[in-house]
Each structure stands twice: as structure tokens, then as C-alpha cells.
């Protein structure tokens, strides 16, 4: 059983490898995605630590001069209209000539870099891996802290739902409702060619996504100049930045550099994160109203990964209570099971995802809750194998949804199988 998960996961990852990076899915997402690559590297390190590092370095090859890591690095080998919005929509080219999107995704990269280094530290040192990626990761975090602290509270703001990685989360509904959608006839979706309409965001969502991205693009992706209609402080995004600052501290120490600035940054972010805690969970803050959005989503549980989190016990109680029913439903649902917007099959509005399960598993291990961690691990491995490495699953039935042979599902199952 165990050997077979490893073999099957390896088959998926080898199949989705393009020579220097891994596509999340050949059909639905045929380019390189930012946080996917970080999760993929975390699994790939068990097959080939070198390949895992190449994955991350190839992503860092698309980094902008301002430090941002774009959420998509487009492959010139793929048809320009295979994915919407493609390179012709974003109109962004790096100094090195890589076509990219202009928005970002959650910063899991430093954590992934540290974990791939640990997989074979001798080989990593021989490749000078940490020394090469460290300045790039520092520039990435500096971009986030300097250019994206739009609320002035020491927290990073996202300016597009895609930046959260949890595109149609109910936490974005009220803010998105303020956005005038781009007319439907002005663009052609490609996602619904490959996945069922009922598993994906709606056309109205897409009209708004397109409008927000076009406004950012038309202002040169300039964070100081763009009139952002959507700007929120997302708990998952900020929690991952904290985890990655801790990883940067480890990397700095390994390079005989000073880890203290990273530990200080992590401590400051952790204390700011507390301002998002309400009703037993972390909630996003909408910078238009300056209010927390009263929606319980998986993003609000991801801070379990933050070392020394003072709210950890309350958060665990929420995860195990009626809103997320830890251990009773499959993995951890992306949205409050009792919430008014809950839909078991629609993307980030209820289904359980493997990347968030992996993050929560890591948090549980860090908290010493090996009992809960073991339950989650068993569920992840069983679902990964029985669903053909689905993108996400119905939390009540475990039925697969979205893409199959999905890369981070294979990679993270591989990681937990070790
Ligand atoms: C938009 C690639 C990405 C993930 C996101 C997931 C989905 C894209 C889409 O796929 O988003 O970036 O087209 O729906 O929501 O988390 O990184 O797997």
C-alpha cells in the first residue's frame, strides 16, 4: 500500500515535469504556478532533492526587479490561449525575458527551500543552493513587507482573490461585490473546458477577477498608484510569511549570516496577526471597511503553523467543533460546514484541499498533537490514492472534484508518506 502510493505519486510528478519545473495539471493549469511549485518541491525532494531545487530556482528565475514572485510563470512551449488569462492578458515580461502574470501568491517558498535543503544537505551545499536562493527570498519578503502593507499594520494585503490561492472563498464575497465585472463577452474562460462548471468559480466571479487584474495591469502593477477596489489582510498569506521568515532564519544561520532580523520580522508579524483573531478563528480584514470579515474559512485555521501561536488552543477547538468537524469529515473543509455559503463541491467554498491539510498537519506536529496529526495523515494518504490525486474532494463523501493527477496532491502525499 505504502510503496504503491509512492510509485503512483512519482508517476504523477514525473508526468507533470516539463524539464525544469512542474505544471499543476497539464489540462487545467499548463504553466508554472508560484505556491504550487513550493508545495511540489516539498514532495519532489523525496524523489530527487536536486530536481526539487531546480523547481524552486526556475520559479525564482521569473522574479521581478521589485522582488515580487509572480503567481504564474508562462511556458513558451504552451499555446498562448491554453489558459485564461494568459500572457497576452497580463502583458508582463521580466528583465530576463520571462512572460509572467503580475499578481502574487502565498509565500511558502522559503519554507520549501529550507525543506529541500534538509533532504540532502551535502548535495545542497555542493550546489551552493542556499547561498543562491537566500538573497532572492529576502527580496521577495521585502517586497511583501514594504510594498504590500497597505493597511499600515505590519500585515501583508492581497489585492486580488487569486493572490490568496483560495480564489472564490466566501471571505471575498462582500469585497468582490463592490467590483463592476468585466463584460462576459470580453473574455473566454478555458477552465470550464477541463473541469465541471459546478466545481469551479461562477462567470460572475470571473468577470470580477478579470476587472481587478486589468486595473492593476493598466496601472503598471504599481502598488503605490493602483486604486485597489479589493484589498484584504488574509490570515493564511500572513501565517505563511511568518513560517517562511522562520525558515529564512534557519537558512541565514546555515550560511553563517545573522538570523535575528528574520526572527524579529516573524515576531512582529505574529503579533500583528493576532489582530485578525475573532470568534475562535482568524478572519480576513477588509481594508475598505477596516473590519474583519465574519466568514470562517480554512485560511483562518492555517495560522496553526505559526510557531508559538498564543491562539493555538482556541483554534484547535474551532477545528474540532461543528464548523470544521476535524476527524469526522474528510480532511479539513475549506469553509465552515455550518456557514450560509457552504457548497461541498465548489472549489474554495467547502471542498477539502490537500495543501491546506498538509499545512494543518505540520501545525499539529509542531504543537505536539501527534494524535490529531496521525488522523489527518491517514486521511490525506487514503484520499490521494483513492481519488487519483484529485485537486480537491467533497468533505462529506470524499468524492474527487476538479483536476486529477494534480501535482501538489501527489507531492504532499509523498511527503506525508515518508
Ligand atoms: C488561478 C494552480 C492554481 C492554485 C490556486 C487555485 C487555482 C487558478 C485558477 O489553481 O487558481 O491562480 O485558474 O483557478 O485556486 O490555489 O495555485 O493549481
From TrEMBL:
InterPro entries: 6-hairpin_glycosidase_sf (IPR008928), 6hp_glycosidase-like_sf (IPR012341), Glycoside_hydrolase_63 (IPR004888), MGH1-like_GH (IPR054491). One of its GO terms (molecular function) is hydrolase activity, acting on glycosyl bonds. Gene3D superfamilies: 1.50.10.10. It comes from the Bacteria. Pfam families: MGH1-like_GH. Keywords: Glycosidase, Hydrolase. Residues 29-409 form the Mannosylglycerate hydrolase MGH1-like glycoside hydrolase domain. Belongs to the glycosyl hydrolase 63 family. PANTHER family: MANNOSYL-OLIGOSACCHARIDE GLUCOSIDASE. This is Trehalase family glycosidase. It comes from Kribbella alba.
Amino acid at each position: 500500500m505504502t510503496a504503491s502510493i509512492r510509485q503512483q505519486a512519482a508517476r504523477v510528478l514525473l508526468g507533470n515535469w516539463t524539464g525544469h519545473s512542474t505544471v499543476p495539471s497539464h489540462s487545467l493549469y499548463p504553466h508554472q504556478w508560484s505556491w504550487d511549485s513550493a508545495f511540489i518541491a516539498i514532495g519532489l525532494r523525496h524523489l530527487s532533492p536536486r530536481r526539487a531545487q531546480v523547481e524552486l530556482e526556475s520559479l525564482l528565475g521569473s522574479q521581478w526587479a521589485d522582488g515580487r514572485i509572480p503567481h504564474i510563470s508562462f511556458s513558451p512551449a504552451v499555446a498562448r490561449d491554453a489558459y485564461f488569462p494568459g500572457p497576452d492578458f497580463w502583458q508582463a515580461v521580466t528583465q530576463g525575458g520571462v512572460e509572467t502574470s503580475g499578481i502574487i501568491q502565498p509565500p511558502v517558498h522559503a519554507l520549501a527551500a529550507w525543506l529541500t535543503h534538509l533532504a540532502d544537505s551535502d548535495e545542497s551545499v555542493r550546489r551552493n543552493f542556499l547561498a543562491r536562493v537566500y538573497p532572492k527570498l529576502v527580496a521577495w519578503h521585502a517586497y511583501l513587507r514594504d510594498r504590500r502593507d497597505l493597511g499600515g499594520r505590519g500585515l501583508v494585503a492581497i489585492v486580488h482573490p487569486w493572490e490568496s490561492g483560495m480564489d472564490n472563498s466566501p471571505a471575498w464575497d462582500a469585497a468582490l461585490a463592490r467590483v463592476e465585472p468585466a463584460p462576459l463577452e470580453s473574455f473566454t474562460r478555458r477552465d470550464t473546458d477541463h473541469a465541471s462548471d459546478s466545481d469551479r468559480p461562477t462567470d460572475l466571479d470571473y468577470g470580477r477577477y478579470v476587472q481587478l487584474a486589468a486595473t492593476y495591469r493598466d496601472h503598471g502593477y504599481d502598488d503605490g498608484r493602483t486604486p485597489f477596489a479589493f484589498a484584504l489582510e488574509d490570515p493564511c498569506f500572513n501565517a505563511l510569511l511568518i513560517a517562511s521568515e522562520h525558515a529564512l532564519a534557519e537558512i541565514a544561520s546555515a550560511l553563517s549570516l545573522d538570523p535575528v532580523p528574520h526572527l524579529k520580522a516573524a515576531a512582529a508579524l505574529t503579533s500583528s496577526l493576532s489582530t485578525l483573531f475573532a470568534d475562535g478563528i482568524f478572519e480576513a480584514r477588509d481594508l475598505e471597511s477596516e473590519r474583519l470579515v465574519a466568514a470562517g474559512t480554512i485560511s483562518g485555521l492555517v495560522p496553526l503553523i505559526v510557531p508559538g501561536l498564543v491562539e493555538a488552543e482556541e483554534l484547535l477547538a474551532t477545528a474540532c467543533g461543528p464548523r470544521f468537524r476535524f476527524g469526522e469529515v474528510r480532511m479539513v473543509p475549506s469553509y465552515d460546514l455550518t456557514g450560509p455559503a457552504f457548497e461541498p463541491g465548489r472549489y474554495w467554498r467547502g471542498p477539502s484541499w490537500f495543501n491546506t491539510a498538509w499545512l494543518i498537519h505540520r501545525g499539529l506536529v509542531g504543537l505536539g498533537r501527534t494524535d490529531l496529526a496521525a488522523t489527518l495523515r491517514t486521511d490525506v494518504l487514503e484520499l490521494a490514492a483513492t481519488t487519483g490525486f484529485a485537486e480537491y474532494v467533497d468533505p462529506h463523501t470524499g468524492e474527487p472534484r476538479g483536476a486529477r493527477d494534480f501535482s501538489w496532491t501527489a507531492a504532499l502525499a509523498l511527503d506525508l508518506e515518508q
